[in-house]
Amino acid sequence: MAKRKKLGDMIEIPLPNNKNSYARLYKEGTLGIYKGTYESYEDVPVDAEFFRFICLYRSSLSKLKVVGSRPFSNEEDSWAPDKVVVDAITGKGSLYHHGEILKCTYEECKDLEVCAVWELSHLIDMLMGDTRWDLCLRRPKDV
User: Fold this and answer.
1) What is the pLDDT of residues 59-68, one digit of tens each?
2) SS3 content of the chain, % helix, strand, coil (to 5)
């Protein structure tokens, strides 16, 4: 049985080029994916910047290995940055903040990551430079 992952766990994402990407687990299954690829977890600087914050399906997340932990200093830090939820009919965006969907203006949400759940294969494609999955996501409209 797979061991349950915990907030702050460092997750290894093996890539086809024999390198790895690494991510830190945030609340609600969100992965903060670090910029760059590395040979091992020890190579990821403690102050490394994040490339993106995305969610994986639980079945995909369960396939990835925990290689370390970087605990959060407080509850607030364990939440990923805000995202935008795009209404499929109107194209209007709403703010996704700490598990709640809130009204917002176009200006407040236009540059945020689109709220979506990814399959592991799509994540790996994205990390290898394939943008087709991003192009499938609808950006908010100024309605």
Assistant:
1) 999 999 999 9
2) 20, 30, 50
- CB atoms closer than 10 angstroms to residue 9: 20
Q: CA-CA distance, 63 to 4, in Å (whole number)? A: 11
Pairing mode of beta strands 117-118, 50-56: parallel
123 closest CA partner among 112, 115, 133, 113: 133
DSSP 138: P
pLDDT digits (tens, 9 = 90+) for 31-87: 999 999 998 888 999 899 999 999 999 999 999 999 999 999 999 999 999 999 988
> From the CB of residue 92, how many other CB atoms can be counted at a distance below 10 Å?
17
* Residue pair 12/5 in contact by the 8 Å Cβ criterion: no
CB-facing half-sphere around the CA of 143: CA atoms within 13 A: 14
Tell me which amino acid residue 113 is: E
CA–CA–CA angle 35, 91, 89 (5° rounding): 130
